[in-house]
Amino acid sequence: MKLLKDTYYFFHSFLAVVTFTFLSISPAIAADAVLSWDIPSTYTSGSQTTDIAGFKVYYGTESENYTQSIDVGYTTTYQVTQLAENSAFYFVVTAYDSLKVELGYSS
């Protein structure tokens, strides 16, 4: 089993730190990515976040072309499963409020 871990810092519509842990299960099967992030306390404008209700994870095999999305609810860790082995994936996270209005991509 291979374990790769990188931390990426995203600053866009909210401030967050997203940590990716990639687990390789088997060369012939699939891989998982464990994502984690901090709940933003401020918007990039500096004002306080007061109504964060949950998060969405978007991903795809091309940067800025995210073909899959998962509403993960109000959690700061999520494991994306069944990713194609030996493929690059790009991930972004958005926060949303109680009306399901999303902030911009984490970047």
TrEMBL record:
Domain Fibronectin type-III residue range list: 16-107
Name the Gene3D superfamilies for this protein.
Answer: Immunoglobulins
| Species in which this protein is naturally found | hydrothermal vent metagenome
InterPro entries in the record = FN3_dom, FN3_sf, Ig-like_fold
Q: Which SUPFAM superfamilies match?
A: Fibronectin type III
User: What name does the UniProt record give this protein?
Assistant: Fibronectin type-III domain-containing protein
